[in-house]
Design a protein that fits this description.
Layout: E1 10-14, E2 19-23, H1 42-50, H2 52-68, H3 71-77, H4 87-100, H5 103-106, E3 109-113, H6 114-122, E4 129-131, H7 132-135, E5 141-142, E6 147-148, H8 150-155, E7 165-167, E8 175-176, E9 187-194, H9 195-202, E10 210-215, E11 219-226, E12 237-244, E13 247-257, H10 259-268, H11 277-284, E14 292-294, E15 311-313, H12 321-349, E16 356-360, H13 367-377, E17 381-384, H14 390-403, H15 409-415, E18 418-422, H16 426-431, H17 436-453
Parallel strand pairs: 1-9, 4-7, 10-16, 16-17
Antiparallel strand pairs: 2-3, 5-6, 8-9, 10-11, 11-13, 12-13, 14-15, 17-18
Length: 454
């Protein structure tokens, strides 16, 4: 019994693109964690995206892609410095530190996202590593060369010696010392995976066309594309889902919106009191009364223009708080629809059929939201027994797979159960004119909102 209670292995799933810098000799931290949503480097991001150097490089790659049909060149031709990636924020921090430090101390800097820092500390500073799923989202990794991009690290002046070793998702990441949890044995760390990809694993998205939409603090879409990355014409980007033994599986991925922040703000202005109230309010509120909510849209393709602020448009003297909340909820679904249209076009171009859409994250506790999403996407939505903590289960699955507790991914599929399935409601779709009218009006509201802000 005592043997059965032992922890066999550990997997780590962390928020991607949140990082810190520290001194690998002294252990001194130079920064706190700089979150993926941090906007302090937004001016630098815009400067790079307007730069002649970057635009010349992407234009040449675009020409080469048209002549050769090469996916790698096509991906380079679409490259933009993204505000959710590490690249511009890391450039900004390195510039600040370089101006304050002696050359010797600057040469001792280590860069790491959350998983790198955790493994560094848990292994008593023996492992300075990251994994393919986390690093593929940072903005200066070459997914086709399967290494840090020598071109981008040179352009962004990121010294290669500050970067961690890249390992497979399922690999040996060292062990947690006995003393850390006051145990009489060490716990081997056998998997590291980024949170969005961990959600895809937990929802058993292994086959091309299987998709997970995670709607929590942020809203993200990941769809499996198989054992080769594909490029996008809609601002989506390929990531490594996981690598186990000799098999690497890729997803096409995109950031949709800061969903959780929108709801937190709605709560703070009194549109609802408890998150459990959302479903009750949606149940008795059938429309927005012509009101539209525009969230902050940073670097989101598929809309004509991004915004740096958020708010309502179309409010009337008789608009209710419930209608305003519904407008916030509908905006989340509309943005997912806009991004899914682009993803489906990318899949069609690569002859991949959309097989399934599964949802996870706190917002999906609302049955009415899930039904709204099924209606607006015109596609069935699955919610599983793992959907409220999917990244945790995803990391545990891969650690078990890596340690030999599970034999293959088929064993994982036996653990996941579909608790609910939401089919597009044809009556609702007919009443809402297939939701195309709402979609068109929301885009019109976005334009007017931007005109006002300008």
């Amino acid at each position: 019994m005592q043997e059965a209670m032992k922890i066999k292995c550990l997997g780590i799933s962390t928020q991607r693109n949140s990082f810190l810098l520290w001194n690998r000799i002294t252990g001194e931290r130079y920064t706190n964690f700089i979150l993926w949503s941090d906007k302090r480097a937004s001016k630098l991001t815009k400067k790079w995206n307007r730069s002649a150097l970057l635009n010349s490089a992407t234009s040449l790659a675009g020409l080469g892609s048209k002549l050769s049909g090469n996916h790698h060149l096509n991906l380079i031709s679409k490259y933009k410095v993204d505000s959710t990636h590490v690249s511009s924020k890391l450039m900004n921090q390195l510039e600040i530190l370089e101006s304050k430090m002696e050359e010797k101390e600057f040469g001792q800097i280590s860069y790491g996202t959350i998983e790198t820092w955790l493994v560094w500390k848990l292994s008593k500073e023996n492992y300075f590593v990251t994994d393919l799923s986390c690093v593929s989202a940072c903005g200066f990794y070459d997914i086709y060369e399967r290494n840090w991009s020598s071109v981008l690290t040179f352009l962004f002046r990121i010294p290669s010696k500050i970067l961690p070793e890249i390992k497979d998702t399922c690999d040996d990441f060292g062990s947690i010392e006995k003393s850390f949890f006051n145990l009489d044995y060490e716990i081997p760390i056998r998997a590291i995976i980024a949170d969005a990809q961990a959600s895809a694993i937990a929802e058993c998205c292994f086959l091309p066309g299987e998709c997970v939409i995670t709607i929590g603090t942020g809203s993200f879409i990941s769809v499996v594309v198989g054992n080769k990355p594909i490029s996008s014409n809609h601002g989506n980007y390929p990531l490594v889902e996981y690598k186990y033994k000799n098999e690497t599986i890729y997803v096409l991925h995109c950031f949709v919106s800061t969903a959780g922040q929108s709801l937190d703000w709605a709560k703070s202005i009194g549109l609802f009191e408890k998150y459990d109230d959302i479903d009750v309010i949606l149940e008795k509120t059938c429309d927005t009364g012509g009101a539209f909510y525009i969230p902050t849209l940073l670097e989101v393709s598929g809309v004509e223009k991004n915004t740096t602020s958020s708010g309502f448009i179309g409010l009337k003297s008789n608009t209710t708080k419930n209608q305003m909340l519904r407008a916030v909820i509908e905006s989340l679904a509309i943005l997912i629809r806009i991004k899914m249209d682009g993803i489906r076009d990318d899949l069609d171009r690569n002859r991949i059929n959309l097989r399934a859409i599964r949802v996870s994250g706190g917002v999906t506790k609302s049955k009415n939201f899930n039904q709204l999403l099924a209606n607006i996407l015109k596609f069935p939505i699955e919610k599983s027994n793992f959907s409220n903590a999917s990244s945790v289960y995803g990391a545990a699955f891969l650690a078990g797979l890596s340690a030999g507790i599970f034999e293959n991914v088929e064993d994982l599929k036996k653990l996941r159960q579909c608790d609910e399935k939401f089919y597009p409601n044809q009556d609702e779709i007919f009443k809402k004119s297939s939701y195309e009218f709402d979609l068109k009006n929301w885009k019109k509201a976005l334009k007017r909102f931007n005109d006002w802000n300008e």
